[in-house]
Amino acid sequence: MNQDQKLGPIRHSLAHLMSMAIMEKYSKAGLGVGPAIDSGFYQDYDLPEPISEKDFSWIEKRMREMIAKDIKFVKGESDFKNALEFYKHDPYKTEMINDLKAKGEKTLSFYDSDWFHNLCAGPHVTSTSEIDPESFKIDKIAGAYWRGDEKNKMLQRIYGLAFT
Fold first, then answer.
1. Is 144 exposed, middle or buried (0-12, 13-18, 19+ CB in 10 A)?
2. If pLDDT is split at 50, 70 and 90, which confidence band does 6 have?
């Protein structure tokens, strides 16, 4: 696999690591979407208080600490009943699960990374050892309506840059 093909999974894995850092501070945070994008990654959050640029350094520091731990990304599957039970506290994941079921999906995929369990199609790196700890930077914050609909709640979107 060439470096360009690995960049997408690295970026997506960094979004998961960022969510792990956020969830350590805000255990009841709602998790929206968090894809890899052309310049890096982002993740949408429903948080009890606003994140600001002054928070970037602790997010990055925590992510680098996790990278050093050689955390594995392990893919698994779940049925809808178990997934809905697991995510009953998170209206965003619950909505996504119900939408996937309505679309005819038979099972759901998720990734476990240390203690973090996330509904996700992937792909990810096998381990954080594949991520250069100096290859990313938390970049900016924006507001984003859940699912891009102005009738929905405004979430906090945190962007990160990631390159080889």
1. buried
2. confident
